[in-house]
Design brief:
The chain is of the alpha+beta class and about 220 residues long. The protein is about 50% helix and about 5% strand.
Length: about 220
C-alpha cells in the first residue's frame, strides 16, 4: 500500500513548483496544501525562510527546493522515471522563453482566481512584490500583443524539437519537469497559437501528471 505524503506548496505562481508533477507521474498519493501568498510565517517555521514547495516526509522532516523534491519522489520506489538525457536544444529554448515569459504571465497571475490569492491582502502582496521588480502589471498586460507573437513563434521552433508526446526527448527527463510547467502556465495567455505537436505534448503531459491546464481562465 502506498503511503500518503504531504506537500505544502503554491500551485500557480510564476515559477510553478515542479514537484507536484512528479507525484502525478509516479501515481503517488499526496495531500496538497496551498499557502496564501502573503503567508511568510508557515514556511519560515518549517524551513527557515519564505519559499515553496515544501515536502513533509514520512519522518516529519521538511524538504524544500522543487528539484530536490522531484528527485526524492522519483527514487522512492527504486524505479525512477526521469532517466532520459537532457537536450541542449530544449535547455536553450527554455532559457530564451523564460527570459520574457513572465511579462505575459505575471499580470495574468495577478488577475486569476488562484487559491493563494483568496484574500485581498494576499493578492496585493503578490502585486506589490512583482511590480517592484517587473514594473506596472497593467502596462505589461496592455502590451501583450508583441509578446504573444514572440511566444507563438518560439512554440513553432519547439514543435520541431519534440520527439514524443509523452516525453519531449523520447524518454522522460528533467527537461519534461522544466518544460511542462511553463507550457501549462502559458495556457493562461489567450491568443497564443499552439502548434500541433506542442499542443499534443502539453495535453498528454497534463494527463500523465494529473494536473489541469489553465485554459479555462485564459486572459
Amino acid at each position: 500500500m502506498e503511503e500518503s505524503r504531504e506537500a505544502i506548496h503554491l500551485r500557480s505562481l510564476p515559477l510553478l513548483p515542479q514537484s507536484p508533477h512528479d507525484f502525478g507521474l509516479k501515481n503517488i498519493p499526496v495531500e496538497l496544501h496551498v499557502l496564501l501568498n502573503d503567508d511568510a510565517e508557515t514556511p519560515t517555521r518549517m524551513v527557515g525562510q519564505k519559499q515553496v514547495p515544501i515536502l513533509q516526509k514520512d519522518d516529519s522532516r521538511y524538504m524544500p527546493e522543487s528539484m530536490d523534491i522531484v528527485h526524492y519522489v522519483d527514487k522512492l520506489d527504486g524505479k525512477p522515471l526521469l532517466t532520459g538525457k537532457r537536450s541542449p536544444a530544449i535547455e536553450e529554448w527554455l532559457r530564451k522563453v523564460n527570459g520574457y515569459a513572465n511579462k505575459l504571465l505575471l499580470p495574468r497571475f495577478a488577475k486569476s482566481a488562484f487559491d493563494e490569492f483568496s484574500t485581498p491582502a494576499a493578492r496585493k502582496y503578490f502585486v506589490d512584490k512583482k511590480e517592484a521588480s517587473a514594473g506596472n502589471l497593467a502596462d505589461l498586460l496592455a502590451h501583450s500583443d508583441g509578446l504573444i507573437k514572440n511566444i507563438s513563434d518560439d512554440l513553432r521552433a519547439l514543435d520541431k524539437l519534440i520527439v514524443k508526446p509523452n516525453a519531449v526527448n523520447g524518454e522522460l527527463s528533467e527537461d519534461d519537469i522544466q518544460l511542462f510547467p511553463l507550457l501549462r502556465n502559458l495556457t493562461l495567455v489567450a491568443g497564443i497559437n499552439w502548434p500541433s505537436r506542442v499542443a499534443d505534448y502539453r495535453d498528454n503531459m497534463a494527463k500523465q501528471t494529473q494536473i489541469n491546464l489553465l485554459s479555462s481562465m485564459a486572459i
